[in-house]
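Subject: design request, 119 residues
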């Protein structure tokens, strides 16, 4: 497992943008894939999107597709989640997590960062 450190949450108005970052404490990502998850109050944690750390290909759930973008730097030292056109429904605690292989569980998690979108 690798330790992940997140940053970048905060409070934003509807329609605004935020950028979250996730970095491995060991310097570079050593896993196969990375996902961003969120958990809204009273709801289960859900996968927002994921990216292959080797091919850089990202995919998203329908509710954020076209508004959120996951990227990773060429050196694989940090990943980001760019969130645009935010709505109150995007409010929650956001987590990054990594998986060792395609289809394997996400078993390394960041500490979570709060995102609050006001109406």
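Subject: RE: design request

Done. Sequence follows.
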């Amino acid at each position: 497992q690798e330790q992940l450190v997140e940053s970048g949450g905060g409070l934003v108005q509807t329609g605004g943008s935020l950028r979250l970052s996730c970095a491995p404490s060991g310097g570079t990502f050593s896993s196969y894939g990375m996902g961003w998850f969120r958990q809204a109050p009273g709801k289960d944690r859900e996968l927002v999107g994921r990216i292959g750390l080797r091919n850089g290909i990202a995919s998203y759930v329908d509710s954020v597709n076209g508004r959120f973008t996951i990227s990773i730097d060429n050196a694989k030292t940090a990943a980001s989640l760019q969130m645009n056109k935010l709505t109150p429904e995007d409010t929650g605690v956001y987590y990054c997590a990594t998986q060792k292989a395609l289809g394997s569980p996400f078993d390394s998690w960041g500490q979570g960062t709060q995102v609050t979108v006001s109406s």
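The longest strand covers residues 92-99.
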